[in-house]
Amino acid sequence: MTRYITLVALTFFIAGMGRAPAPLTGIECTVVAQTVGDTTTYRGRIIAQSDTAGQYSIQIARKTANIATSSTIGGTFTAAAGQEVFVGRATHTGDLTGVMATMTITVGDKSHACDLVAETET
After folding, report:
1. Based on CB atoms within 10 Å of each CB, which residue in 2, 9, 37, 58 is the most buried?
2. What's the predicted TM-score (pTM) here?
3. Which long-range contacts (C-beta less than 8 Å, at least 24 apart) are formed by 109-114?
């Protein structure tokens, strides 16, 4: 009987490993790209409805005619309810041409993907 229970528990554990994380609610986030002159800076922006702490990962990929680059930055964050928090920072020369940027935030076993928002200044 003990072997059967162990096997059933192990089967559920392995079956759950391939599942995507549960969606994260009550939090808003974006990757903010700001171009000033010939430099673009990327940062993650997080606003939580309640006190929240977790991890973030920002992926930036850029492909031009001759060069393809990518970078990933990440770490932890803490946000008080309603507080705007900026996380990470990456900079490159040039505008947003050929750029794809995403951020994933994770709190416990729940994750949320965040979109890129561009702000341009002269």
Report:
1. 58
2. 0.75
3. 109/21, 109/22, 110/21, 110/22, 110/23, 110/24, 110/25, 111/20, 111/21, 111/22, 111/23, 111/24, 112/23, 112/24, 112/27, 112/29, 114/29, 114/30, 114/31, 114/44
